[in-house]
Amino acid sequence: MAPPAPTNKPGSLLSPSHYDDDASSIHSERSDQDTDSEDDEVLMGARTSADIRAHDRNVLLEEEERDKLLEESRRRGRRGSALVMPAPLKKLFSKSFTELPMAGSSEQEEIPAEKSSDKRKRRRERRSKRKERLMDEASHGEDGELMYEMEEGGMKEGSATGSSSDNEGSDEIDRRGLRILHDEKSQRRRRWRTWLFIHSLIAVGFSILVLVAWKLSLHRKSAVPIQTMLSNGTALFAPTTILISLDGFRADFLNRGITPRLNAFIKEGVSPVYMNPSFPSVTFPNHYTLVTGLYPESHGIVGNTFWDMELKEEFYYTNPSAMQSKWWGGEPLWVTAENQGIRTAIHMWPGSEAHIMAIEPAFLDAYNGAEPLSNKVNRIMQLLDMPGRENEVAEVQDMRPQLIAAYVPNVDGDGHLYGPNSTEIRVTINDVDNMLDHVFQGLEQRNLTNIVNVVVVSDHGMATTDVTRLIQLEDLVDTNLIEHTDGWPLYGLRPKDPAQVQSMYDGLVEKAATNPNLDVYLRDVNMPERYHFSKNERIAPLWIVPKTGWAIVTKDEFDVVEGKEKGLVYHPRGLHGYDHEHPLMRAIFVARGPAFPHAPNSRVEPFQNTEVYNIVCDSLGLVPKPNNGTLRLPLKPIGLHSPDTALEDPNDPPTSTPTPSPTPSPSATSEEEAADAVISISPIEASSAADSNEIPPHMVGVDPIDDTNVDRPVVPDESEMTQEEKDFWEWFKAKLDGLKGWFGELLSGDKDAETGERR
Ligand SMILES: [Zn+2]
């Protein structure tokens, strides 16, 4: 369309007057000249009737134009004052409103209202007369088409060329003028529509923004998956799972007759005969695998200790710097849950204090190796007694978590300190079983047995060590060439000169040829596929993996020849970290609850602990993150547990070829004779990388006060006892627990100081 002619128009469309009361002043100015006498002059001087028609049309259109503008400006004047608009929006999109000259309004006030209304009236009359005249003429064929077009509010294409005109003279000019005016009108209409459209768009956009913001603010609530609520009679429970890890609880400990509650739990629930840990079978990698479903090579916690080449820093699990999120890859259960609106309570789980992904559990209990087992039970019950989602008056921070994960270090501690076959560990295993009994009793008292899922796992087993199963590191490699040793009790070697990896490996292979008790692997060449232990730069390029029950020691830590001669006892007396599929490294998994609707005593095929993450996620209705696990709920039992399917006790000490040795192995009697000479050796303590304040890996969770001051009774197999003996035993244990509690309180001050330093 042709742009409006800049001259003789009551202000172009871009002029502020179109949006302001100023327009009225223009109008009133012109209207002073716009009199009937003027009309008459024109009529008198008209050359032809066409001229008169043209004049009429012009005046009519101009007047219509002006009145419309005036009307609009009045309307806008009113609206401008009443319109409530957010300030930024006003500034952005209503510039014409705010930047208009203010003079117009005062001018308008000067015109007496009576006078102007009178004028308007007269004008209207005049206009209707002219319109009548034009319409009359048009109906007689003279400007019919044009009128049609005017009434329709749009120009026909053909008419733009002027072909419909019967007059090439002034009529054509008139038409053009009309067209221009008409164009202006339609353009203004379009602009109005555009203005309306833009503002609607802004309104819609703004609404969407508000909606999104509102949605985001509700994110945590709206992300909660649809969950079935179960009632225990007093409260409603959304899916709730208690995950308990018994560190170092070897699968065949269940065969010893000292775990009545765990054995009953198996009969109530679903379980494999054992669960395989992941390689290397040590605490931190495996606890993190349990809650991520990832192999250690995938989540990056490739050992309790390891060197990171990029960070140029050592991860040392008891060092406070290990609790930095930079070490921890993957997404742990508590992050998955919290991100999906499920509250979690994490009690001392390895890694839970590392601020992983900057998402904290709703409840986080820091590690305390001296925490009495009864406190753990009380804590779990306290969490379960919190108000649920149905409680509308409860504060969010007080609300019950749906995932409770608790870590129990006790069995592992005794396994290292006394060995997995010690009488001491029997007491601790029984204590832990007793703790579980209290948990189940607490659930029963709350009518939650069929409402809350319970999953009991362990991270690895334990193998007995002995002075006859030691390998002197100096006999294998030139230790001066090594810069870092990772992963104890395995040895991950990083030579000072990376080019020496191959020659070091070749030398080790030669040694291994005469010593069947160790395996040597290059991370990138022949690391067994089933270990899933190669795809991470944190894994050292060269590894010595001793056979289960064997330990590699430096001379600083333990001189093997001297130890054998003197009949010294090697400590730790129990070790793990070996081939994760070795029977002595086997862990446990037992589950019960509404998420496990299987026949009681159901048995599933053994699986690896990479499956636990998926299983716990499913039990809570969470969407798990991609991981190395493949099992999903419900589990697929292959039958029931029976004596035929029971796990065979593995050989511990493991049967293996003794190292060719110049000195005879010390007998049991010589070990007893040398009791005074017993030394506690920690390989890490003595290593160059270790901090003197750090405790060795095998010491985590070990309470030395308990061990040195409390005489541990021997726990007989309860299955072999008569009822009378059992009753006496229960009474005796109760008395002993009381004594321990009293003694523990007496010493708690010292304990706290000590444990605070540990982690
Ligand atoms: Zn462990």
Automatic annotation (TrEMBL):
Gene Ontology BP term (one): nucleoside triphosphate metabolic process
Biased composition (Basic residues): 118-132
Superkingdom, taxonomy of origin: Eukaryota
InterPro entries recorded: Alkaline_phosphatase_core_sf, Phosphodiest/P_Trfase
Compositionally biased residues, Pro residues: 652-665
Residue stretches of biased makeup (Basic and acidic residues): 50-74, 133-143
Region named Disordered: 1-87, 101-146, 634-675, 687-724
GO molecular function: nucleoside triphosphate diphosphatase activity; ribonucleoside triphosphate phosphatase activity
UniProt keyword list: Membrane, Transmembrane, Transmembrane helix
Transmembrane intervals: 195-214
UniProt name for this protein: Phosphodiest-domain-containing protein
Organism: Mollisia scopiformis (Conifer needle endophyte fungus)
